Amino acid sequence: MPLNSSNEQVPARVRKISWSGSAATGRRPGSTHGGLRWESVPWAARRSHLGRRGLAIGIDIGGTKVAAGVVDPSGRVVEEARRSTPGNDARAVEQVIVELVQELGRSHRIASVGIGAAGWMDLDGGTVLFSPHLAWRNEPLRENLQSLLRRPVLVTNDADAAAWAEWRFGAGLGESRLVCITLGTGIGGAMVMDGRVERGRFGVAGEFGHQIVVPGGHRCECGNRGCWEQYASGNALGREARELALRNSPVAYELLKAAGGSAENITGVTVTERAKAGDSASRELLEEVGHWLGLGLANLAAALDPGTFVIGGGLCDAGELLVGPARTAFARNLTGRGFRPAAAIKLAALGPRAGMIGAADLSRVSGRAHG
Known about the structure:
The structure is a single chain. The protein is of the alpha/beta class and 371 residues long. The chain has helices at residues 12-15, 43-48, 90-105, 141-149, 158-169, 234-246, 253-258, 268-276, 280-304, 320-333, 354-365; strands at residues 32-33, 36-37, 55-61, 65-71, 77-84, 110-117, 120-121, 128-130, 137-139, 153-157, 177-183, 187-193, 196-198, 308-312, 344-347. It has a five-stranded mixed sheet with strand order 5-4-3-6-10. A five-stranded mixed sheet has the order 13-12-11-14-15, covered by helices on one side. Strands 7-8-9 form a three-stranded antiparallel sheet, with no helix packed on it. Helix 3 packs parallel to helix 4, helix 5 (158-169) crosses helix 11 (354-365) and helix 8 packs across helix 9 (280-304). The longest helix has 25 residues, at 280-304. The two termini are 34 Å apart. Residues 1-36 are annotated as: Disordered. InterPro entries: ATPase_NBD, ROK, ROK_cs, ROK_glcA. This is Glucokinase. Its EC number is 2.7.1.2.
């Protein structure tokens, strides 16, 4: 049973393993699965047995909208629906989730439901320890929803869900050690290592945006100063552009014009749009943010040594205008440069659906999704 160009064979004993609960459960070295030590199972073999159990619904809970989709085992979104996020009322959000599942479930036979939301989840995938957008604090969300939906439910961090989707179906396909970075108002992150989501000892790994790159620098919402996301995010891009415009710099003319003459209306999206249209000042601002992005990636490479970084999120609409400078800064700051292999840096392939697709797929393959 060849798996790749090297004709790697999957032993018969490995092929008989029940794959439920393998890739997403965060198994530790030394654990066993079907009588085998888990780390001895080739990662390609783990992937080849995933996602064989029908349709699942993935739900991505954002600050302004709740998006849901029916996802098949190949990662294809069959049908979608969405609602506005009902403020920060946790019970109201749960009701919206129920409505979406009921709506999509009328025309599809659904095996399980995956929920992706910003925040910290316990390692069991049942309790939301903290969510920045909603009033969830030690909330037993899986138990609540399973009692309402009468279906298996998995709850996961939205960045973990997106990383899983990119590993399974997108830009990280075929990568054994993948780090995903999401650039939006801040910086999110997640890792898929050897066929499993790596969440750390306490389930809160991936807060890459809060590595300190400038001690004593810009104040971050987390309370610290100089966090990476204060220099390499959409918010950082907008802040630098507004500062340029407020100083009445003549190079900010196009940005001010696009913002209706008010510097306060300039956002990261404004800068990206003007940069894509050819405005030189906007391109310089993106280049600066790209430099900080590459610097942070070099730090992560020194610590984690991934094979590929996948960069997603709204700021990636800038494409190579952002990622090109990031690659240059990464190569310049990589520890051991010239004497070691360097990770690839790729743009995400699945766009805003990644969280939805990943949450659905995780619910289908994870042993944590149990009724």
